[in-house]
């Protein structure tokens, strides 16, 4: 088994220059490329007219790949339909939220419910599987590309109503779950139900949640439709699609619930595009965000993931598209491996000559490889990755987990309460992840589908939408000796966003040993104080006022009408303990709080001491017990870190001193000496 190095290749763009394709494979070999992904956007070349197929060009790609020892990830072309298809079957085009049918154009401008679209996708997928499903170089099927978006056409409305009937059974149940007596919104006929839209209803929060759930389920259903077509001829090849992250802060992609989607892919893959060298945060803080989402996507299936796309230098869709500084490509790529990836794959292998992605970073750019710094750095990384094949299949061993939930995320965006500008769910997740990243403690970012057993510490920030089933899992975890940390704005509403009687899920108050009375909200310029021993920390945004039933106070508020009341508490529950942080604080308090917990729970770090928080040390453990240490310097200054004894540098084969110097943007990979 090898780490995968390569990426998205579009030979269909070079049909008039066949010599370019042969030249590319020579360059691939020089750069230690072992994998190419082809076919994702090639439908108009594969099927230029309905039922007239052209596979000669793709046959050549497979032949060249096999001649050069390169594996092929074959994409299905459903991400971008051909013009003839949209002209003949206009219902395949999406209807937007204003109920207007789109014109042809763009990607993912198609309806996942359309019978015509599904049939044409089935036909082309079966043709691909029949022809290439048994090729020796075929490594994996890559369905579509970055599934996303939604359609509001009548076919989708009908499917949504059927989905609701399956879930609720009766209109009475829907009306109760949606609290439709509010504003006289009661449904009296299933046909009255419509997707949320700005020309209709957008303020029924449970409807908004259910629509997002439906969009996820309908997208998954389309994925399974694509997969079934392939498996008629190719049922022994892994199948996946590429997940994404949102915004420059790399938050979990918001349009789909990947915790559900991950259950139907054979391996999780995702497309990673950090804005390195930006002007609003340090490289280390951005690296923290990359680490967080890697830890989430690794934990979805509790197995290594693949980076399906990354840029070897820059992208073309950030506001400013800055190239990576020398050394950053290797460092950023090694971080992906450190957090659980078994690949570094790129978009794109050769730069397009025209259209919207002609200036997106690529392995082979418009400047020839012989004088292209990016190509040279890709080749160097490929050499280094070839030394790390023992890493394939290895996992991170974590005793700490941070909880994330897509549905909770959606509900918080819709909440219409507390603070429109100060919700900051993702920032809060990063805040609670930061102490562990800075102290080189491995973390899993888990969802409700993960088992909680095996962790010592589980952190539950802002779990506003909280089911009884989730509470039961947490209670079992804590009773068995686990430690859980909850924060403000937790346990307030059920799965349909109905507020619990009493304001908080009763069982959660029992677990925490508190009764939550109210939440104070501050304007941005307003603060309070949290008093912990002799130290004072700042409180901002939120402060929960609560009574203690069985919990012990750990910290107190410094002012306002609840001065002297508990701000942080701990409750002993079964063999474990449950903490409640009632106020939003700065990093200083969270660092102190979690450092004490790590010591109390005997959770160890991957490093002993280091000169800067810009250094990150992550580990992966192979089946044979070999531990890989990735020591990474996310600064442009020399840094030092102290590691365990008896470590060997993978590149040199030499044992290293426990105190390790790292040059600017340097990464060293070490293994435990056997």
List the helices and strands and how they pair.
Blueprint: E1 4-8, H1 18-30, E2 35-38, H2 43-46, H3 56-67, E3 71-75, H4 83-88, H5 115-132, E4 138-142, H6 154-168, H7 171-178, H8 205-231, E5 239-240, E6 242-243, E7 245-246, E8 251-252, H9 258-261, E9 269-272, H10 283-301, E10 306-310, H11 328-338, E11 343-346, H12 373-385, E12 400-403, H13 406-413, H14 425-438, E13 443-446, E14 457-460, H15 468-479, E15 483-487, H16 506-512, E16 514-521, E17 528-532, E18 535-548, E19 552-557, E20 566-573, E21 576-581, E22 583-585, H17 587-600, E23 615-621, E24 627-633, E25 639-642, E26 647-649, E27 659-662, E28 667-672
Parallel strand pairs: 1-2, 1-11, 2-3, 3-4, 4-5, 6-9, 9-10, 12-13, 12-14, 14-15, 15-21
Antiparallel strand pairs: 7-8, 16-18, 17-18, 17-19, 18-22, 19-20, 20-21, 23-24, 24-28, 25-27, 26-28
A few lines on this structure:
With 674 residues, this protein is α/β, with parallel strands linked by helices. It is built from 17 helices and 28 strands.
The number of helical segments is 17
Largest sheet: 11 strands, mixed
> Whole-Å distance between the termini?
21 Å
Q: Report the portion of residues in β strands.
A: 15-25%
On the 0 to 100 scale, the average pLDDT is 97
Structural class by secondary-structure content: alpha/beta
Q: How would you describe the shape?
A: globular
Query: For the CA atoms, what is the radius of gyration?
Result: 26 Å
**How much helical structure, as a percent, in the residues?**
25-40%
Low-confidence stretches: none
| DSSP summary, beta strand count | 28
């Amino acid at each position: 088994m090898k780490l995968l190095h390569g990426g998205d290749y579009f030979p269909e763009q070079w049909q008039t220059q066949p010599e370019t394709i042969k030249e590319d494979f020579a360059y691939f070999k020089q750069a230690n490329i072992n994998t190419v992904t082809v076919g994702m956007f090639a439908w108009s070349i594969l099927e230029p007219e309905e039922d007239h197929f052209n596979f000669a060009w793709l046959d050549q790609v497979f032949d060249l790949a096999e001649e050069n020892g390169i594996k092929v990830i074959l994409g299905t072309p459903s991400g971008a339909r051909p013009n003839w298809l949209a002209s003949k079957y206009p219902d395949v085009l999406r209807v937007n939220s204003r109920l207007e049918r789109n014109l042809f154009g763009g990607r993912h401008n198609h309806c996942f419910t359309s019978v015509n679209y599904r049939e044409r996708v089935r036909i082309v997928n079966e043709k691909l599987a029949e022809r290439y499903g048994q090729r020796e170089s075929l490594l994996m099927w890559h369905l579509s590309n970055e599934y996303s978006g939604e359609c509001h056409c009548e076919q989708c409305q009908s499917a949504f109503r059927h989905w609701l009937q399956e879930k609720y059974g009766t209109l009475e149940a829907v009306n109760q779950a949606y609290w439709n007596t509010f504003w006289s919104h009661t449904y009296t006929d299933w046909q009255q139900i419509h997707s949320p839209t700005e020309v209709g209803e957008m303020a029924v929060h449970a409807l908004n949640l259910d629509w997002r759930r439906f969009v996820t389920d309908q997208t998954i259903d389309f994925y399974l439709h694509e997969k079934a077509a392939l498996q008629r001829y190719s049922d022994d090849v892994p199948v996946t699609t590429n997940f994404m992250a949102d915004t420059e802060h790399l938050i979990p992609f918001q349009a789909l619930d990947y915790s559900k989607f991950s259950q139907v892919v054979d391996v999780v893959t995702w497309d990673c595009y950090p804005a390195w060298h930006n002007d609003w945060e340090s490289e280390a803080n951005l690296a923290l965000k990359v680490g967080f989402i890697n830890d989430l996507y690794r934990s979805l299936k509790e197995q290594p993931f693949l980076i399906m796309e990354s840029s070897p230098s820059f992208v073309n869709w950030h506001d400013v598209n800055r190239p990576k500084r020398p050394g950053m490509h290797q460092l950023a790529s090694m971080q992906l491996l450190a957090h659980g990836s078994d690949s570094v794959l790129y978009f794109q292998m050769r730069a397009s000559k025209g259209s919207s992605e002609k200036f997106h970073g690529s392995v082979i750019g418009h400047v020839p490889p012989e004088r292209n710094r990016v190509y040279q750095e890709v080749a160097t990384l490929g050499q280094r990755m070839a030394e790390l094949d023992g890493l394939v299949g290895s996992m991170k061993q974590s005793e700490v987990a941070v909880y994330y939930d897509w549905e909770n995320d959606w509900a918080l965006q819709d909440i219409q309460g507390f603070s429109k500008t100060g919700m900051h769910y993702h920032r809060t997740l990063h805040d609670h992840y930061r102490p562990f990243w800075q102290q080189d403690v491995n973390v899993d970012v888990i969802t409700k589908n993960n088992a909680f057993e095996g962790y010592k510490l589980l952190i539950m920030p802002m779990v506003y939408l909280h089911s009884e089933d989730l509470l039961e899992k947490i209670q079992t975890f804590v009773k068995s000796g686990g430690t859980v940390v909850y924060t403000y704005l937790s346990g307030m509403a059920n799965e349909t966003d109905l507020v619990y009687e009493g304001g908080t899920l009763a069982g959660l108050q029992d677990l925490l040993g508190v009764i939550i009375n109210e939440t104070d909200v501050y304007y941005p310029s307003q603060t309070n104080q949290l008093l912990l021993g002799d130290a004072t920390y700042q409180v901002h945004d939120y402060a929960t006022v609560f009574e203690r039933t069985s919990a012990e106070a750990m910290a107190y508020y410094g002012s306002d009408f609840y001065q002297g009341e508990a701000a942080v508490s701990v409750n002993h529950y079964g063999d474990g303990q449950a903490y409640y942080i009632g106020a939003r604080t700065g990093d200083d308090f969270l660092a102190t709080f979690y450092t004490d917990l790590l010591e109390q729970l005997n959770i160890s770090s991957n490093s002993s001491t280091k000169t800067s928080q810009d250094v990150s040390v992550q580990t992966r453990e192979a089946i044979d017990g070999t531990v890989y240490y990735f020591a990474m310097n996310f600064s442009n200054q020399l840094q030092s870190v102290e590691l365990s004894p008896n470590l060997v540098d993978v590149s040199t084969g030499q044992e290293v001193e426990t105190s390790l110097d790292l040059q600017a943007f340097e990464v060293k990979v070490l293994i435990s000496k056997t």
